[in-house]
Design goal:
The chain is mainly alpha-helical. Helices cover 56% and strands 5% of the residues. The chain has a two-stranded antiparallel ribbon with strand order 1-2. The longest helix has 22 residues.
């Protein structure tokens, strides 16, 4: 199964969030239910990394006091991010029942702060590298992040705009 970033977001959204191993299991089950097919773990890792870079997924490390059951502290959950249009791939609809993972409720403020921190780091890298394409992508994504999370990115947006001039 070659899931797109939106399909990865759709699968994690079914649960509220999944670890990378849980996502691998969920996609393998979806591929099986959709008529077979394998999940190439290396290709999946690359797709997840690209989805994280594009903010289609956000890696959220729940604070110890709010980690969902079964999640070890320090084990981030992949969560549908601000640029995603979550789409459930064929065969994945019943995966939450098959894997017996209860829906996870996340602290939206903490999740928003995680996205903000990751966004600021991405801005710093793009500006330092002088990567105009990445700067423009981040400028567009800044509006998505603000809509998705209770954060303000006006300073980062101004920095991106200044870098393009």
């Amino acid at each position: 199964m070659d899931a797109t970033a939106d399909e990865l977001a759709g699968v994690v959204d079914l649960f509220g969030g999944l670890t990378r191993d849980e996502l691998d299991r969920a996609l393998a089950e979806a591929a099986f239910r959709d008529g077979g097919g394998d999940v190439d773990r290396d290709a999946l890792e690359a797709r997840v990394d690209r989805a994280l870079e594009s903010f289609a997924l956000v890696a959220y490390d729940p604070p110890n006091r709010s980690a969902p059951d079964g999640i070890e502290p320090g084990e981030p959950l992949l969560v549908a991010g601000p640029t995603a249009f979550p789409t459930v791939p064929d065969g994945a609809e019943d995966v939450p029942h098959i894997l017996e993972i209860e829906p996870r409720r996340l602290d939206r403020e903490a999740l928003g702060e995680t996205a903000r921190t990751e966004f600021v780091a991405a801005v710093e890298d793009a500006v330092a590298d002088g990567d105009d394409d990445r700067i423009e992508t981040l400028l567009d994504a800044s509006y998505d992040v603000e809509t998705w999370a209770p954060v303000e990115l006006a300073d980062e947006r101004a920095r991106l705009e200044d870098a393009l001039e």
